[in-house]
Specification:
Blueprint (H helix, E strand, L loop, with lengths): L1 H10 L5 H6 L18 H7 L1 H10 L5 H6 L4
Helix pairs in contact: 3-4
């Protein structure tokens, strides 16, 4: 299951609301958690404030700056 998620991330194939909206699958492009910002892949994986709360617990404090500033795109 995890390898499928990683494959989708690597291919930019996550069904985020923004991707689904661009494919005319939905009219909702906002993040379903924050309901304030569009939901591209990096938003749903890391940049959403709701998701950041989880990452702040998981990622050691010394690497937080690098983790939240980096990009995988």
């Amino acid at each position: 299951m995890g390898e499928i998620l990683l494959w989708k991330i690597a291919r930019g194939a996550l069904p985020t609301n923004l991707a689904r909206c661009s494919r005319k699958m939905t009219l909702k492009f906002l993040c379903p958690l924050s309901k304030k910002e569009p939901e591209p892949m990096m938003h749903c994986l890391r940049d959403c404030e709701e998701v950041r709360r989880i990452w702040r617990v998981v990622v050691p404090k010394l690497t937080n700056v690098f983790f939240f500033a980096g990009t995988i795109e």
